[in-house]
Amino acid sequence: MSGAQPRVAAPVGRKDAAPVPAVLPGTRRSARPEMLRAIGPRLLLALYIVFLLVPIYWLVNMSLKTNAEIASGMTLWPERPTLENYRRIFTDASWYSGYINSLKYVLLNTAISLLVALPAAYAFSRYRFLGDKHLFFWLLSNRMAPAAVFALPVFQLYSAVGLFDTPWAVALAHCVFNIPLAVWILEGFMSGVPREIDETAAIDGWSFPAFFVRIFLPMVAGGVGVAAFFCFMFSWVELLLARTLTTVDAKPIVATMTRTVSAAGMDWGLLAAAGVLTIIPGAIVIWFVRNHIARGFALGRV
Amino acid sequence: MAKPRDNRAWLLVLPVVALVAFSALIPVMTVVNYSVQDTFGNNQFFWNGTGWFKELLDPSTDLGGRFLDALWRTLLFSALCLLIEIPLGIAVALVLPRRGWGVAAALVVLALPLLIPWNVVGTIWQVFARRDIGLLGAAVNGLGIDFNYAQVPLHAWITVVAMDVWHWTSLVVLLCYAGLRAIPDAYYQAAKVDGAGAWAVFRAIQLPKMQRVLTIAVLLRFMDSFMIYTEPFVVTGGGPGNATTFLSIDLVKIALGQFDLGKAAAVSIVYNLIILTVCWVFFATTTRGQGEAGR
């Protein structure tokens, strides 16, 4: 079917791109120069990607410089590249424990969110029940509550139940926006599975739990992966609640960055290196879901 | 095919309700509780009725004026973000390759900013836009423009909006791309037979088919830009002056900075209600007549 779509995409990287006519016969807008037609889309994409990558490059660039070099003037690449900033992070417990703490609550949150969201999403996708639409909107409305609103009461709540400064506190607090999102995504993917499957399995004598785990889950595996990706993502990038709910023992890396750095005067190189290291887990996770990512961002609804 | 009615489904949603109620409902009730009280410290509270709300909604008072200013700034910020990100996102989605080796690579690069912790996004732009050590700041100053986001409100705004465009446009791109990919090739063949131009194809096929994902994109982008806190706080700290003090930044100042719990709680509630109302109205108008659409 290649070449069947007249002009949607810039045929970047396509070896068989030639047969697509640049201008269709009878087109009203054929006055535009053909050169622009062919190059315009690629140029837009290239510019956008450069726009995305340049700020990240600048961070990487700074992380490989000494503070003396950063302060002494602009250089487009490190003149004397050094890994000293990274070495300091990996040898200083107050820095690297931040990464471990962050990963702890992120993984915990992802596990909790998925565990409770799976049956709920199944219920929403398969049944109508008393107050289902209201419940769904109430869940989603929590996604619309600014973290700033929750900061103080959540701090008091988790202090009261003795979870303050543990990964559990942050993991549970992040559930407020991750569970609704996970339910929403999973419901979209599950609704794509025909209900006849459930009915056939029931007739064949499968018990519900066995059916759910052995037959149904594998069919929505893509959705589970996408939901996990989103839980990971939103828990990993959040700062306000994570910082409010921790002081020492469970302090996440994002909080370490805001505190230590400003106390020590501006240590730009170290700050940049810590920033670069926070980008890496995200990049790894994206790589795993790259084939599902577009559908995932549409929450399974296309 | 209609879904069967079965109230036992509640058993399946019970864990979700319990967890979210614990993490959200208790804090919300705490906020409501504070919003009708006043405190002089020492954990002593006094009934204040609707006093805070009256003050908040009256622009002539200190709190009301401050709230209204922050509200306008936040609305302007959200409007600018949507106006730039939605068209740009659609345009980039249209030019993304649909097959070949470039697809995975492009998608991974696109998604990268979305996975960066928000304060690191702030840090990246704080550094990038600085005139002494940042590439962007230095380049703009090199062009002869005296660019300084720490002192000129307009420059601070440009920096914060550019940062948001950098951070979130990819979300719109990915959503639209998913919508575009779901269009069968037959539609394009039919358009080709009819001799439709690019603009006609966009208007008659691509845009309608993207409506659903665009609804999600606009909703998510409105919510998140309206709730934005960390990124502008890291870059400008709300300054210069109060130029980029958005609602959430102001709220945290009142709640954790001045410990004015009653005021902060009242602001929280009104703030949250605005988001809920806007989302509800938008959701209801865009999905009207589509039955199950947004669900």
TrEMBL record, chain B:
<comment type="similarity">
    <text>Belongs to the binding-protein-dependent transport system permease family.</text>
</comment>
<feature type="transmembrane region" description="Helical">
    <location>
        <begin position="75"/>
        <end position="96"/>
    </location>
</feature>
<feature type="transmembrane region" description="Helical">
    <location>
        <begin position="156"/>
        <end position="180"/>
    </location>
</feature>
<feature type="transmembrane region" description="Helical">
    <location>
        <begin position="264"/>
        <end position="285"/>
    </location>
</feature>
<dbReference type="InterPro" id="IPR035906">
    <property type="entry name" value="MetI-like_sf"/>
</dbReference>
<keyword id="KW-0472">Membrane</keyword>
<feature type="transmembrane region" description="Helical">
    <location>
        <begin position="213"/>
        <end position="230"/>
    </location>
</feature>
<feature type="domain" description="ABC transmembrane type-1">
    <location>
        <begin position="71"/>
        <end position="282"/>
    </location>
</feature>
<keyword id="KW-1133">Transmembrane helix</keyword>
<dbReference type="InterPro" id="IPR000515">
    <property type="entry name" value="MetI-like"/>
</dbReference>
<dbReference type="InterPro" id="IPR052730">
    <property type="entry name" value="Sugar_ABC_transporter"/>
</dbReference>
<feature type="transmembrane region" description="Helical">
    <location>
        <begin position="12"/>
        <end position="36"/>
    </location>
</feature>
<dbReference type="Pfam" id="PF00528">
    <property type="entry name" value="BPD_transp_1"/>
</dbReference>
<feature type="transmembrane region" description="Helical">
    <location>
        <begin position="103"/>
        <end position="128"/>
    </location>
</feature>
<keyword id="KW-0812">Transmembrane</keyword>
<protein>
    <submittedName>
        <fullName>Sugar ABC transporter permease</fullName>
    </submittedName>
</protein>
<keyword id="KW-0813">Transport</keyword>
